[in-house]
Design brief:
The protein is of the alpha+beta class. About 30% of the residues lie in helices and about 25% in strands.
């Protein structure tokens, strides 16, 4: 075992490696700061999975959600969301999570004989009423999506 008195001190890093390390650290810290802010620029403003507001329930809004399908024979049938999809997805639909709404509409559109699927959220806040509609094409390859406030 060597003593400190006999060992030479470690070589100090050169200027180029110090600049690289400093640039890497600065980029890493900048990424850690900007990544959580990325939700602000998203299309789905109600998606707060990556924010501190997710853990607060003070802004909970009561929304009444209804959905129905229109069949080729002209019949219009209501969809019971609670028995069709998981309760967590019902909550997401009521919060206007667009990805979940689109997935729900698309899944309902896959049933045979369905011409159109509609979903309406009536909320008691500034969002008001939001309507989502998906027209199912005969060949199931072309769909028309509408969303209104």
């Amino acid at each position: 075992m060597a003593s400190f008195a006999t060992e030479p001190p470690p070589a100090s890093p050169n200027a180029k490696s110090r600049r690289r390390a400093g640039a890497f650290i600065a980029a890493f810290v900048l990424f850690q700061f900007l990544a959580p802010l990325s939700y602000l620029g998203r299309e789905d403003a109600s998606d707060e999975r990556f924010t501190w507001r997710r853990f607060t329930r003070s802004d909970e809004v009561a929304c009444e959600t209804s959905a129905w399908v229109e069949r080729a024979d002209g019949e219009r049938r209501d969809i019971a969301l609670e028995s069709t999809i998981h309760q967590q997805w019902v909550d997401y639909v009521q919060r206007d999570r667009r990805a979940v709404v689109d997935a729900f509409l698309q899944k309902q559109c896959e049933a045979p004989g369905v011409l159109r699927v509609e979903l309406v959220n009536h909320c008691d806040d500034a969002r008001g009423t939001r309507e989502y509609s998906l027209r199912c094409a005969e060949d199931r390859s072309a769909t028309i999506r509408t969303a209104t406030r």
